[in-house]
Structure formats: C-alpha cells, structure tokens
Amino acid sequence: MAEEVSFTIGSPRGSRTVTVSYRRAGSGDPLLLLHGIGHHRQAWDPVFDLLTAERDVIAVDLPGFGESPALPEGVSYDLRSVVPTLGALCEELGIERPHVAGNSLGGLLALELGREKLVRSVTALSPAGFWTQAERRYAFATLTAMRRGAKLLPLPAIERLSRSAAGRAALTSTIYARPGRRSPEAVVAETLALREATGFDETLAAGVRVRFTDDVPGVPVTVAWGSKDRLLLRRQGVRAKHTLPGARLVRLPGCGHVPMNDDPALVARVILDTSG
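Structure tokens predicted for Alpha/beta fold hydrolase (276 residues):
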C-alpha cells in the first residue's frame, strides 16, 4: 500500500511544503528506488519483493509523477532543486544515507545523490546525462511522442490495446524489450501515469542542459545498461565508464530501457551486489 509524507524545503521564495507518495517494505539496509521520467514507482514492482528480502526498500513517486503532487510554485524541476528535495525526503523518513538505485532520470538523480555524498552506494540503470546532443534530441523527441500518444488515446482504447501482447508492444516497446511480459493492468496504469505526469514538461525542459561530467568518488557505483535499450543507446554506458572510472559497468542482456520488467532476477542481483 502507498504511503504519503509531507516535508518542508527551502526555495527562492521561502519555505515550501512537498508531498511524496511512496511504498516501503522489507528490512535491512535502506534502499531508495527512483523511476524515470513519465513513469511511477510501480516500475519497480517486478523487483520489489526480490529486494525486500534483503533490504528496507522505499520506492517513491518523484514529485510531479505518479501519485506525488507537483512541486510547489517557485520550485524548479532541475537537479539543483530535486536532489536536495530527495535528501529532505530521506531525512523526513529517518533514512540516513540509503543505498539508491535509479532508472533513466532516476539513474541521473541517483548519481547526483552519490556525488553529494547523500547515499552509501549508487546503482544507475540506463542513467540520463551521458548523451550527445543528437542522442538527447532523439530521446526527448521519442518521449514527447510517447506522451502525446498517451494523451490522445482514450482510456477504452488503452485498455483494449493492453489486453493483447501486440497492443502492449505498441504502447510500451520503446522502453521494454519484452513488453508482452508486462501485465495489462500495469500497462494501463503506466500509460495513464505518463499522460497525467504534472512534472513531465518542466523536467524535460530542465534536461536540455544536463550532461553528467563529474566522477562520483568514494561511493560504490554500478552503471548497468540493457543491450536492447532503444531510448538511451547502450554506447552511452561506455561514455559513463569513462566519466566514472571507478564504476562497475554491467551489461544487461536482452533488456530494454526499463530493465526491471525484462529481467527482474538479474536487475535485483545487480542492485543487491552493489548495495551489499
């Protein structure tokens, strides 16, 4: 079941209250899970139970995504705002320097949390920020088209498409290598999450200026990339390794951009190994 927490952050216009929806279960070292742009915390459902067997797992809806409300007026969606907000969330939940795993946007945020020494370890699955300008434009155009499609399709059409493997592929093959494995209910829910994400446009706009160019010293880092990632191409993983020479680079055979659904056991093992 989802829980909700509210806490105060600073902003250029003074203190503001942020509310975040999350799911927490398990025991052991704390592990924070961060999804990608336009997605929601349920992206982690395929690996959630595997992780809770060994960790105290907190899967969050980032502000402006899933069930979490938009950031307050005057608070931007750039890294300078979102990273401290996640730090304040951990403080409010009583989590001191958790391990963190993130996918896409969440992977970029995880690396930034590592750079700020706010976490114990980082697992970044196809993280954003290691693109060329051409690759970024391609990814952003693809994401924008996906969101436009989600907005244009009426709910009955989304539900009808989700009932067949071909329909699920039409809706989600950009992010999953094995979309037929996703349940119809999950596909409907994530299509609606993409459509209704209040933070999508501002997050995408903030991403135009993002390149991750700094090392993350003193923190164990794993960068993992799906061999069939169609959104952020796997050569970006090689670039990440050059930027983060101390990081472990892991190939995820047969996995797409959101690998948790394509190979839950492998992804869970990569995260547990990094956070061990």
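Strands lie at 3-9, 16-26, 29-34, 55-60, 99-103, 121-125, 221-226, 248-252.
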